[in-house]
Each structure stands twice: as C-alpha cells, then as structure tokens.
Design goal:
Subcellular location: Membrane
Low-confidence stretches: 195-199
Largest sheet: none
Keywords: Membrane, Transmembrane, Transmembrane helix
Shape: globular
Mean pLDDT: 82
Protein name: Yip1 domain-containing protein
GO cellular component, one term: membrane
Order of helices and strands: HHHHHHHH
Radius of gyration: 18 Å
InterPro entries: Yip1_dom
Distance between the termini: 60 Å
Length: 199
C-alpha cells in the first residue's frame, strides 16, 4: 500500500506545479475519509514544526524572530499552525459559499493540508539552499509568498468551481486581512508582542 502511495504523491506534486486546479479536483475526487484529513493535518503540522526547528538550529543563538521561535515550540507552534489551517479552510469554504460556491469544509481542509505539504517541501528546499548558497535561500523565501498565493487562488477556484481568478484573489485578500487581525488578537492574548528596538 505504501509503495502505491509514493508514486501517487510524486505525481500529485508534479501535477500541482503544472496544473494546480487539476490537482485540486483530483484530490477532491479521491474523497478520503474525514479521519484521514485530520490525520493529514496533524502530520503536516508536525513536519513543518520539525523543519522550522532544524532551521532555527542554523541561526545564531538569540537572533531568530520571536514569532519564528514560537512556531518551532511544540506546545505553541502545533496548535497555532493547525488552528490557522482549520480557520483558513473554514474561511475558504464559508466565504466561497457566500459568493455562490459549492465547496465543502471537508474538501477545503483537504486542499489546505495539501497546500501546506507543498509549502513544507518548498521550505525544505529553501533550508538546503540556505546551507549551500544563502542568497538563493532568501530568494526562495520571497518566491514562496507568490507560490502560496498562486496555489491558494487556484485551489479555491477548483473547490467552488469559480472561473474569475482575480475576483477569487480579491476575496482571499479580504479573508487574509481578517485572519491576520484575528491572529494578532490571539498573540496578544498569549502575551506575544513584536520586539521593540531601543532608539
């Protein structure tokens, strides 16, 4: 069974890069059980946490950003990242339905988990690039923002059968502003504040 999953995983990665909407529809058509979607969420969160912790080890002590360090903390990073993905999936599903979409939360969760898988793979590439050629790693980090938005717009369009990609992007932008505000409030409640440099 594992041998059969490996080619499927590699093929989905390739298809996501070439045709993200086709890959999203293929994932939805696979229709894994809800338990598998939650397990996938947990596993990809753990994987992202491990890569973040390894990346921090390469930084000089005390120079890592506070938020970055928090994401690498097992008792804070896991619930924060997992919670963010659940909120994102709920926002994509609910927001799309407001505009006439038909996507379900379960499928939105599946696509958000797969999006995180793709970003984690990119993060691993960035980590090795930083070790070999630091300027290339910084460039990959910058490009990751565009890759994230590109995949998210196409995944959302595939989820709700939308065809107007600029409108989808605008809707996601509004949703992200709302999510950022909510996360800022959450961080304040957790006692995490941005560092203030002395003048």
């Amino acid at each position: 069974m594992t041998a059969g999953l490996s080619p499927l995983f590699a093929d989905l990665v390739r298809q996501t890069i070439r045709n993200p909407q086709g890959a999203a529809r293929r994932l939805i058509a696979l229709d894994p059980p809800m338990e598998a979607r939650w397990i996938g969420l947990f596993l990809v969160t753990i994987l992202a946490l491990l890569i973040t912790r390894v990346a921090i080890l390469t930084m000089p002590t005390g120079t890592e950003p506070q938020f970055f360090a928090m994401l690498a903390h097992p008792w804070l990073g896991i619930p924060l990242q997992a919670g963010s993905m659940v909120v994102m999936a709920a926002g994509i599903a609910g927001g799309g339905r407001i505009f006439g979409g038909t996507g379900r939360f379960a499928d939105a969760l599946l696509l958000v988990v797969w999006l995180q898988v793709m970003l984690t793979l990119l993060q691993a590439v960035q980590f090795f690039a930083l070790l070999i050629l630091p300027p290339l790693g910084a460039l990959i980090a910058f490009a990751a923002i565009g890759v994230f938005l590109w995949f998210l717009v196409h995944f959302t369009a595939a989820l709700h059968d939308f065809t107007n990609l600029p409108l989808v992007f605008f809707g996601l932008l509004v949703g992200f502003v709302t999510l950022v505000v909510a996360l800022a409030v959450l961080l304040m409640l957790l006692g995490v504040s941005p560092p203030v440099e002395a003048v």
